[in-house]
Design goal:
The chain is mostly helical. It contains six helices and no strands.
Length: 149
């Protein structure tokens, strides 16, 4: 019983540390509102990029859907793909997109093709990182001290 209590306490302490680090980050952003706005805009663009990719792929396959609808489909499919039941969302993303595009009357093979094109593009975009890992080996990066002021 003491061992279980120790594990629970260790878990609680690690959560406290993470919350303390979050507080420092929030204080940093609160002290620099322009930085907070810039980071928010970057995050917004980061969330819109997959929607733009889906819209471009859909357009190339002669699928005409309102861009806002594509954005909603993308956000739901991306969220579904993060469920940790597959490798990199493969399969889950395709199923979600076939279903969601099907609600708009898009044929399942076209929706599947859009999803596979997107998945392949994500895979190809990770190749430079793979090449870097192969070149440098699997060494962990050197520890660096960050000073948040």
């Amino acid at each position: 019983m003491l061992k279980r209590l120790h594990v629970s306490r260790s878990w609680f302490v690690s959560i406290q540390r993470e919350l303390a680090a979050l507080e420092v980050s929030v204080q940093t952003l609160a002290a620099r509102p322009l930085l907070a706005v810039a980071l928010s805009l970057i995050a917004l663009v980061n969330q819109l990029l997959p929607a733009v990719a889906f819209w471009l792929y859909a357009g190339e396959l002669s699928v005409v859907i309102n861009p806002w609808d594509i954005a909603m489909i993308t956000f739901i499919a991306t969220l579904a793909a993060t469920i940790p039941i597959s490798v990199a969302g493969w399969g889950v993303r395709e199923g979600a997109l076939v279903f969601l595009f099907g609600l708009y009357g898009i044929r399942s093979e076209v929706a599947f093709a859009i999803s596979v094109l997107y998945g392949v593009s994500l895979t190809l975009m990770s190749v430079p990182g793979l090449l870097l890992i192969i070149q440098q080996g699997m060494r962990p990066p050197a520890a660096s001290k960050t000073n948040i002021t």
